[in-house]
Amino acid sequence: MDLLNALVAILNYVVIPATAYGAQLALGALGVTLIYGILRFSNFAHGDTMAFGTAVTIIVTWGLQAAGVSLGPLPTALLALPFGIAITAALMLATDRVIYRYYRKVHAAPVILVMVSVGVMFLMNGITRLLIGVDEIRFDDGARFLITAREWRDWTGLAEPLTLRSTQAITVVVAAVVVWALFWFLAKTRTGKSMRAFSDNEDLALLSGINPNRVVAVTWIIAAALATTAGVLYGLDKSFKAFNYFQLLLPVFAAAIVGGLGNPLGAIAGGFIIAFSEVGVTYAWKKVAGYLGYNADGLLQLLSTEYKFAVSFVILIIVLLFKPTGLFRGKSF
Amino acid sequence: MKKLLWASAAIALTAGGAFAEDIKMGISLGFTGPLESMSPMMAQGAELAFKEVSDSGKLLDGTTITPVRGDSTCVDAAAATATVERLITSEGVKGIVGGMCSGEAIASLTNVAIPNGVVMISPSATSPALSTLDTKGLFFRTAPSDARQGEVMTDIILEHGLKSVAVTYTNNDYGKGLADSFAEAFKAKGGTVTVVAAHEDGKADYSAEVGALAAAGGEALVIAGYVDQGGSGILRGALDSGAFETFVFPDGMIGETLEKNFGPEVNGSFGQMPSSEGEGKDKFVAMAKEAGFDGTAVYSGEAYDAAALMLLAMQAAGSTDPQVYKDKVLEIANGPGEKILPGELAKGLDLLKAGTAIDYDGATSVNFVNGRENAGTFREIEITDGKIETVKYR
């Protein structure tokens, strides 16, 4: 019984939240890594792209709700997501046309493109705030829980509660579908193959007749889709606040770099590594230890929760010191 | 000519500055930020007192008051300092109702108000640190110190039969002060505090914080935070994960947002906030209702009292100069003399003009201790059927 309680406590406070968070980070990191692999720069505007996409999705969600459309137990935002992606993709393509294309044409160094993306970040920052404001917004509707703490207790008789929010389950399912679709696209379709070729060797790809503008456009569209999906899932699971998405940039980048920039598989692994370390390191293990027969006086907490963000950085430093190309050998230009 | 000037100056002085003038009074509250849902009712409370005195025409023979609002943000000490700087140097206010939150109040007080010699009376800054700060007699507060709230909260929790609690606080002067003073009082009376952990405001996700609190355990969770900020996040996380079922809410957590966002989910949880009962409060609530706002809102009556105290002190000192009237505030607040309630400011002004002592009681039974702060009464509340219900006053 005690062993079960310990397991449930770990599941409830570490595994479930970290899995949902990891899936959100992984989607964000995939977008970053894709842009890095194909367009060859770190896109600092990615966090605010997530915020913009989510903001648009929220507005469409409100519209749908006002029109009386709903998905029953599922959040309406899932229905609004394609609209959010379409508008975000349009914005990304416009940004590329107006801003990035020039720097590609003059063959600007990657660091210049990074600085340009910082400028774009501030711009999108402003657009998002003009669009939806700075306040915290909750837009989840439908059923909130798959398993509630009380049901679980009545059902199992265990002392430890277990809850599973529907948004956590949706996050994992949607993330899995999106990742599968992305890998299928990159591996099987002609466009996907040309993107990989472009990423591996730009000159060779151009010589073999790949249209660079098409590759760039598709990359932006996919990045917009990934960013919007990640942002909407994060917002559904937690809440939407423009500033929080800006802060999300740190763990997202950490995930992408830990996994190896430019390597999609690495981005996913990185997302989960960062999420599980953030939650695991700041979790107080006292109760779990108690169930396992060790009664501690302290909380058995490695780091106080205020230092959550520091965890990403520590992992980042360790990886960069010992394996600069990341765990899954990404590109290092 | 010079003699004439001196003579008239001397007459003016003996007459006690009895010239009708138009003065400005500052209101520095967090109109944006974590307590933005509370500020409007507080500002309206202060403005009600200013208007009452202005309309009576009895302050220093017809001096009228123009209130000037400024945004102290509650969390950004630099912004609050800039606001108070503007109120004092460019608006030329003679006194300020504010600041709202302890950290910001301490910053604007020490950086601007004290160097410029302007009186600040805060209706809501409750950090124990403000009890001992050297303020040159320029600072008062109509809200009680959190040290007192910590004791009251201890009593309420013990009366509910709870012996061990976990405490989380918003990481600022208010939260830390309240959490520490509560933990100390609770332990002194034989209770167990399993953990005292900070949380940061403005984050999306509090599952890690909730996990740590849940691991520490306890029969209830004390949330010394803000209802429009991280406090709600912690509460949401604790409810969702089933970590705690009973919660204790100090003043920062009690507000409309709590009823609106949580309602029946927190049935049976309880808390307290500085408030008062009695004739003064009833009168203030009635006046507020007439003026079109909710006088039962947290710290609204305190704001009225803060404003009224400054004006009555001006009358007693015969001057609108903060350096002069600051010495009269305590006298007015603690009596002896005739009791003055809200709505009776004109009577108070008349009595003071005639040289009779008054004891301003106001909306919150004003009685200053430590030479600067209200001893305070607290309203104990409980959430019943999703509504905040008053249990009793203590």
TrEMBL record, chain A:
CDD domains given in the database record: TM_PBP1_LivH_like
Give GO cellular component annotations, separated by semicolons. plasma membrane
How does the UniProt record describe the way this protein sits in the membrane? Multi-pass membrane protein
Task: Give the source's domain of life in one word.
Answer: Bacteria
The record lists the membrane-crossing segments as 20-39, 51-71, 77-94, 106-124, 169-187, 215-236, 305-322
Entry's Gene Ontology molecular function annotations: L-isoleucine transmembrane transporter activity; L-leucine transmembrane transporter activity; L-phenylalanine transmembrane transporter activity; L-valine transmembrane transporter activity
Name the record gives this protein: Branched-chain amino acid ABC transporter permease
Q: What is the lineage of its organism?
A: Bacteria, Pseudomonadati, Pseudomonadota, Alphaproteobacteria, Rhodobacterales
From TrEMBL, chain B:
* Database matches in Gene3D superfamilies: 3.40.50.2300
SUPFAM superfamilies from the UniProt entry: Periplasmic binding protein-like I (SSF53822)
Transport is among the record's keywords: yes
Q: Which domain of life is it from?
A: Bacteria
User: Any signal peptide, and if so, which residues?
Assistant: 1-20
Instruction: Supply the alphabetized keyword list.
Output: Amino-acid transport, Signal, Transport
Q: Which GO terms describe its biological process?
A: amino acid transport
Annotated Leucine-binding protein domain ranges read 23-323
PANTHER family in alphabetical order: LEUCINE-SPECIFIC-BINDING PROTEIN, PERIPLASMIC BINDING PROTEIN OF ABC TRANSPORTER FOR NATURAL AMINO ACIDS
Q: Which family does the similarity line name? A: Belongs to the leucine-binding protein family.
- The name on file for this protein is Branched-chain amino acid ABC transporter substrate-binding protein
Organism of origin is Paenirhodobacter populi
What is this organism's lineage?
A: Bacteria, Pseudomonadati, Pseudomonadota, Alphaproteobacteria, Rhodobacterales
